[in-house]
Specification:
Elements: E1 3-4, E2 49-55, E3 61-68, E4 73-80, E5 83-88, E6 91-94, E7 97-98, E8 107-111, E9 120-125, E10 133-144, E11 150-155, E12 158-163, E13 168-176, E14 183-188, E15 196-203, E16 208-215, E17 220-226, E18 233-238, E19 242-248, E20 256-261, E21 269-272, E22 282-290, E23 295-300, E24 306-311, E25 316-324, E26 328-334, E27 342-349, E28 352-361, E29 366-374, E30 377-382, E31 387-394, E32 402-409, E33 423-426, E34 440-447, E35 452-455, E36 458-461, E37 467-476, E38 483-488
Amino acid sequence: MMMRATMVIALAAACGSVSGGKKPDGGSNKDSQSVDAGNEDGAKSGTRLKLQWVTYPDGARQLAGIMDTMLHEQCYPQTVNGGMYCAPSNSAISYGYYSDANCTQAVAAWYYCNAGQPDYIYTYDTSNPCQSTILGLYQRGSEVSIPSGLAYEKNAGGCQQVNFGTNYTFYGLGAPVAVTTLATMERSEPSGSSGIGVVSYTSTDGLVYPELLHDSTNNYDCYPETTGAGATSATCVPDVDDAYAGYYSNSTCTTAVAETNSSCPVPTYAEVPGQCSNDLPTYFQLGSTEALSTAYYTSVQSNGTTTCQGGNFSGVNWYMLGAAVPTQTLTRAPEMVAGRRIQRIQFTAGSTEYPDYALYDTTEQLECESYSAGNNTYNCLPTSSAGVNSNYFYSDSACANAVDIVELYRGANTCPAPVLPKYALKYTTLPNGCSTNMPEVHTVGASISTLYYKSGTTCTVYPAEPYEYYLVGAQVPTANFATATLMTDP
């Protein structure tokens, strides 16, 4: 499975793994030091904005985010009402939702499995369906009772009821927060007119926060994308809005076309997805428009063969593919610093180095990711493309013996078999229905060819799909894996 690599790991307030992710405005997702020292990868704290690091005892560390010491809040660079700021991360979103049938009392929905409460609420411009724009920031207001989660949404059809169910808590908007209370930031471009360089966000107090890469040769922002754990190289693919090109204009599924929302601006690039689990996508310029009454797509059948099927789509414009978009390659390898169990994994392109979110555990001899255990502690658990599927499959024709299954996507019969990982991660469900933040680590057991599931009261053979299935083995204690602590620069 292809993996997007980002330098910045998710803020410590988030649940689960600290791998990268998107922020509300679409942004993507490292020991104690003085303000001017310890600037690994060009990162440096300011006088107000301090870097946070997930720090392992033997010295390895990862950039984990920013602490605004004036607001006592973790923050992230994002655009608010046209300006770039380090805006609070522990925030909910008011995205055109209201508590009343007249759509006058704005509310923000907060998923009940999230820890604690939001400190702030962002409001969004919902008039443009093609772009999410943050208009303003508010203090969290009082909790609002919305029976059965039946809130209202303002859209082109007026004020209409929307059912959130019982899994959300709603908050009103409190006092507005002036953007002047936030630390301003700006984008700092890499030097040089060719090759790959690091784009950073900087603040007037001296913070330098590396964020993504820029391909100066081809003139686009990009991020390293790999085929997963163990990859020795990565492709720096465009970090831009692109059209999906997983459809075809002919019934043999040989002429690819890209689709775009007919009401949105036309993007520059089209992304053609890979066909097998370890294929990276490829990118093309958009070509001429194509009038299609029927578009076609490939589907992997239960016997592993691929068929071409047609369908009709509304609200879509179609484009032929133009010239291929050139991409650059980075090497990828652990640093292997003597005396460290945990090693950072670096991408390298010429003189540019850029760390992956994954680490390398020299004791386990595998890649791992930092997962929050709460109380500012982390464990580096094995990176795994294998998820555990629970409470669905049975090993016998009477559906009497439930089994946990590790499933690995393969694709069509022509695709190579996926690499069997040493471990799989299992999230258990708490009594309140939420998943645990820290997954269990299990070994991967024997393969199983025939599985069953319940269809009503009938026990039915589960159709063979483009997956390979394995039983879940013994649980491995979390204490076996390296522990780290979240630290904030002084």
